[in-house]
Amino acid sequence: MLIQFLEQHPYLGRSCTEVSPRMTAARKKQLWQEIATLLNQQGPAVKSPQLWRNHWAKMVCGARKELARSASERNATGGGRVGGVDGRVLDILERTGAVVTTPPEYYPVPDVPQPRRRQPRQLEEAVCRATAEYVRQGQCADARAVADRKFHHKMLEQNRRHHEAQMASQERLENQLCRLTEEVGRLRHVQQQRLDQERRANDCTQRLLQQLLEALAVFNAFKLINRLSGTLT
């Protein structure tokens, strides 16, 4: 599959960073990521894009060595062209104008340990754990929503009761104020009646005193007259 992909995109086989405006370094990186994904899905090997590029470099190195060996044999025995996988690799290099006559030294990048692929059972367990965690989080969210609704209803009920208590207390205060007002009015009426009675009593007392004074004056006058009359007789 690697060779088939590179036959469709031969410029990926070159080591230069940019070969054309259409095949930039970013585009090459994207294509190597795509082929790495396809190869990893096919298996059994699982490698990073850089390791697959190293694998391609090894294939190029081997093809060039095979070309050099074939050239020496052709000079000695008149052998033919390199075929097989090496021949396809050389064809890809020739299509891009790469020099394929001498095999270059190959310096592979150290292999980076790849994470082990999950076994089906491990994957199934991971899916089960993720599903259980998702369900648990959903249940927790539902429980929080129910708790929030209960708390909201509780606060509304407390506010309603507090408002009703305030209204009842205000009504009691208003009733007490009305009763006190009525009591004050009644007391003022009684006090006014007492004041009127006292005023009438004072008036009556003054009239009696006046009458007594007048009667006393008349009595004294008669007494004086009688005394004068006795003296004359």
UniProtKB/TrEMBL annotation:
The reply on keyword Kinase is no
Task: Say which domain of life the source belongs to.
Answer: Eukaryota
Which key words are in the record? Coiled coil
Myb/SANT-like DNA-binding domain spans which residues? 22-68
Q: Which residues form a coiled coil?
A: 153-215
Describe the protein's quaternary organization and the partners it interacts with: Self-associates forming complexes of several hundred monomers.
Q: What does this protein do?
A: Involved in transvection phenomena (= synapsis-dependent gene expression), where the synaptic pairing of chromosomes carrying genes with which zeste interacts influences the expression of these genes. Zeste binds to DNA and stimulates transcription from a nearby promoter.
Protein name, UniProt field: Regulatory protein zeste
Provide the species name. Rhipicephalus sanguineus
